[in-house]
Design brief:
The complex is a heterodimer of chains A (about 120) and B (about 110). Chain A has about 120 residues and is an all-beta fold. Chain A has strands at about 5, 10-15, 20, 25, 30-40, 45-50, 55-60, 65-70, 75-80, 85-95, 105-110, 115-119. In chain B, the strands form 2 sheets. In chain B, strands 2, 4, 5, 6, 9, 10 and 11 form a 7-stranded mixed beta sheet that branches. A 4-stranded antiparallel beta sheet of chain B has the order 1-3-8-7, with no helix packed on it. The chains are: A mainly beta (about 120), B mainly beta (about 110). The interface of A and B includes residues 42, 44, 94 and 105 of A.
Amino acid sequence: AQSVTQLDSHVSVSEGTPVLLRCNYSSSYSPSLFWYVQHPNKGLQLLLKYTSAATLVKGINGFEAEFKKSETSFHLTKPSAHRSDAAEYFCVGSHHSPYSGAGSYQLTFGKGTKLSVIP
Amino acid sequence: KAGVTQTPRYLIKTRGQQVTLSCSPISGHRSVSWYQQTPGQGLQFLFEYFSETQRNKGNFPGRFSGRQFSNSRSEMNVSTLELGDSALYLCASSLEGEAGNTIYFGEGSWLTVV
């Protein structure tokens, strides 16, 4: 079974300081991993995606994440927080569903990390 | 290219009623999946459709159902609404519905059951 754990439910940083949102995963096979951001009353917007091509993945808005197999981690970072980064962030794993036909996938969501940015 | 479109965005229903939510995927995407988001349970998978066939289903009661049309548009239906069904319902689409495909989410439909 696959699980995704976001280690912090809430992170608060000052504007201009680095952001670190932590995500660990467990999977019996190499997963595809995503980070999404959700602003209030909005859907989920894709920040970046890992699919084994490169361990360091660059996303939109200056975010990046590094896949570390030895640590089973996929932490999201940004060098300098902006007030518009305040939102909820979800780490999501995708894997083939063992319960369905060929091609079907299943998503496993972390519980989310709410990022606050202090002016 | 238009994104995933969900309608209606907001709706209020009474306990015992039923509701139908609609989702239009990104053009060319054949997989559509549905999720329920609540403060207490977070994001939970409802079901996934591919080429009009339900391939995968989450752990929800039979009151929750869905379908997909030949143009890949999808609807989900909740019958005999309960207060606990109040949630944000998110639809997502992907090209082939395979692990590793990027999944794009809509803005969601906010359902309030009173």
